[in-house]
Design a protein that fits this description.
Two copies of one chain form a homodimer. Chain A is of the alpha+beta class and 482 residues long. The first copy, chain A, contains 15 helices and 25 strands. An eleven-stranded mixed sheet of chain A has the order 3-7-8-14-11-10-9-22-25-21-20. A five-stranded mixed sheet of chain A has the order 16-15-17-18-19, sandwiched between helices. In chain A, strands 4-6-5 form a three-stranded antiparallel sheet.
Chain lengths: 482, 482
């Protein structure tokens, strides 16, 4: 009989160069991150995948709260007529909603939509809460599940149900709302780059790509190893589009009634897909230490007779690491060393330390880096300091590697032929665009590339649209995208 | 124009003695804990109510993890046929499920049920994960929303959608599963009594009251101030009922295949209802310090001219409390002192400290206790220690007060007339029962009382059923219940 461990060990991960899509699914399976549930397109997030989501939640939640945001919970069910109140919003979401028509054994008088996002259900309530300028700003966030009916599901990237946080704020002035929308994007960018080691380009979405109901959508875009872009998170300046239809008004210091200025911003479990596709290699997942549920795995080397002193030493090291706030785990299972190494390698643990009879006797341990495969021998008394330094080095290395890849694959292009070629070869392309939506649609139809954003760092520059040849002032970021 | 603060200040809380049900709703409103959403029976958990839920989550989550439990996430949608596979389970839940029939603009081939609980969707997946004894025990928990169509909604206690955690475990032996079910009940009991200061009676549910699909249901029951019982949390020994229909099998060390032994256990946002009804008084919410999002509120006394030194002093005290891990907040809003006091009183903050010009000058501060209304003057340098002691004293006092109430209202009864009277007067009643379900139903029909449990501490005792007069060995706990 084949046990589960043995079966996993013998399952091969497809090479990225052979089939990138299959590699992605193989890594998710090998690292035990997630799998499909019984309903097509629904995802089960397995404990190890969920532990990554918990790290994301803990870190972001604290950062949100530091800016005055409070968590709350709003209902899963939205009356169908609510969704219809903001015209762009309903157009954007109506095609992909799931609808409850029966409950408690009866047909419902009004069908209920399962939230694809919560603007409408929240803002109906916000209107009851807000009366005066003293109630502003209102800064609310929730960590919840949402449902959008996806025809082509893909684990973490597109599933019928996913987990996210959605922040929703109301302000007294347009300026303050825009500052908040940009602040949240900045928090997302810092989180992506300094915690997940994923370099991102921040910018503003063109009209045709913005959130259904927003005035402006700010985005951060990351390059995956196949050159495609992943929208990592977005933050919307909603203007007064929703406050006018949901009647969110306040008496200001001028004793007059005004509509509130709003923002919403979200980040989802899709970022875990981005994490896999930014750092993973042909041996499986590779995790930056700051997001890793386990930073250091201590594996005992069991050869024949079990030796209790190995586990004891491993736990001693683990306890020392805990005092330095380093997350470690001891693996003293009675398995062949190779099996253990392989398992933790697939799971992307940044550092592996082998604890065998020889190491315990000589008081010298080997640190193996997941990112580079490099091994270094360290005396016991220098172990904690050396691990701390190595974790920092891994974190930096992963970010620099991803940044170097993106830089080498970002092309500034002025000719249509070069554009087509650069997109085909899997690059980010900075090119002029005349801001005509029809032209953007032609470009998409011919090359598969969409306009990811107008990068914040783009400078005014006279040029001509890559496709229409009409005058243009700015280079936009084009790429194929997830 | 009336601002929001002013409006709240002038809203009166109904006295408990006048109308207990209205008092409950008034407290929820006055403390800004929750309100109904746009769909009937759906609840919006407001930031202050959600902060209490976050404390519940943080404390319990850590305790679960200490026993080896891992978090995961399973889909919201369950194929209708799954629910039907365990016959008791479907009978229990079918009448109250919500059903998605349309999605993505089309009618679904198979209707999807929104999880009322996740046994079926999880166990289908567990069967794929478990192969060998080495995969056991499997200890999984999730913090999620669930939906049960309630005809008589009541905030926190019965809402169409609520938040909870549901733990699900699989074990190699019946004994181990039962130990796990009892361990989780013990964790719930400790949490109820030592964190929420709610005394509970632990015991086993009779057949007719157990979870749909369980072999045994263990429960903890708390007495509310109106004498009714609230089921605080339950833990189920599922036996092999589900493993047999979902085919959860494992090869044991004997190289033979066996069905797993399972448990499930849950605690929900309804415990917040229990918190309100255990400790609240005619002035609003009263929170035990250990569950309070804010343990100490420091209010500046603004009289006429704003004085920056008050806020500064309040923040200094707050910082000192933070070093002692005491959660405090400074309220330096420009409002009349009475308005501030009243607001924090309604929110049940355990300790209020006034920071006025006099206090700052004399370096002596007044600690006001929410539970007793008592005020004591403390010199600045003794403040932190005194607050720490006072918080412990409040925590103990609230538990002892609730325990004394329950003890004074628990009656041992042997005559039917006394039983009816005791139930009518809002007591817990310990009485003999012949274990005939029909008799239990008669008792319920005539008095409204249900069998809450056979308490673990009940001893064998010869007696006669309170209703049928047939022989009985044990006293059961009867009460009206939420």
């Amino acid at each position: 009989m084949a046990t589960k461990e043995e079966k996993i060990i013998h399952k091969k991960i497809t090479k990225r160069s052979e089939d990138y899509s299959q590699w992605y699914l193989d890594v998710i399976d090998a690292a035990e991150l997630a799998e499909y549930g019984p309903v097509k397109g629904c995802m089960v997030i397995r404990p190890y995948g969920y532990a990554i989501w918990e790290r994301i939640q803990n870190i972001l939640d604290q950062r949100f709260k530091e800016t005055g945001v409070q968590n709350a919970y709003f209902p899963l069910f939205i009356p169908e007529r609510f969704l219809e109140r903001e015209k762009d919003h309903v157009q954007g979401f109506a095609p992909e909603v799931a609808v409850v028509t029966h409950a408690g054994g009866k047909k419902l008088a009004e069908p209920l939509v399962i939230r694809p996002t919560s603007e409408t259900v929240m803002y109906e309530v916000f209107a009851r809460w807000i009366h005066s300028y003293r109630d502003l700003p209102l800064l609310i966030n929730q960590w919840v599940n949402v449902v959008r009916w996806e025809m082509r599901p893909r684990l973490f990237l597109r599933t019928i149900e996913f987990l996210w946080q959605e922040g929703h704020t109301v302000h007294a002035t347009e300026k303050e709302a825009d500052e908040r929308a940009r602040l949240m994007l900045k928090i997302y960018k810092d989180f992506a780059e300094n915690i997940m080691a994923i370099p991102v380009i921040d910018g503003i979405k063109p009209e045709l790509e913005k959130f259904a109901g927003a005035q402006h959508t700010y985005t951060i875009e990351a390059m995956m190893q196949d050159g495609k872009s992943l929208q990592f998170a977005t933050s919307h300046n909603l203007g007064q589009n929703f406050s006018k239809v949901f009647n969110i008004k306040f008496f200001d210091k001028d004793s007059k009634e005004h509509y509130g200025w709003q923002t919403s911003w979200g980040l989802s479990t899709r970022t875990i897909g981005g994490l896999i596709m930014t750092h993973g290699d042909d041996n499986g997942l590779v995790l930056p230490p700051k997001i890793a549920p386990i930073e250091v795995i201590l594996t005992t080397i069991e050869t024949g007779q079990r030796d209790a002193s190995l586990k004891q030493k491993a736990e001693e090291i683990s306890n020392i690491l805990t005092t330095k706030n380093i997350r470690s785990q001891v693996d003293s299972r009675d398995l062949r060393p190779g099996e253990k190494f392989y398992e933790w390698e697939k799971k992307g643990i940044p550092i592996r330390i082998e604890v065998g009879a020889k190491e315990v006797k000589e008081e010298v341990f080997t640190i193996a880096r997941r990112d580079s495969g490099e091994k270094i021998k360290i005396p016991f008394d220098q172990l904690a300091n050396e691990i701390e330094k190595t974790l920092e080095s891994i974190q930096n290395n992963l970010f620099q590697k991803a940044l170097a890849m993106r830089q080498s694959r970002t092309k500034i292009v002025d000719q249509w032929d070069d554009f087509v070629k650069a997109i085909d070869e899997g690059n980010f392309v900075l090119a002029h665009w005349c801001e005509d939506e029809k032209v953007a649609e032609e470009i998409k139809a011919e090359t598969g590339a969409t306009i990811r954003c107008l990068p914040f760092e783009s400078v005014e520059e006279r040029g001509r649209c890559i496709k229409s040849n009409k005058p243009s002032q700015r280079r936009y970021l084009f790429a194929r995208a997830y």
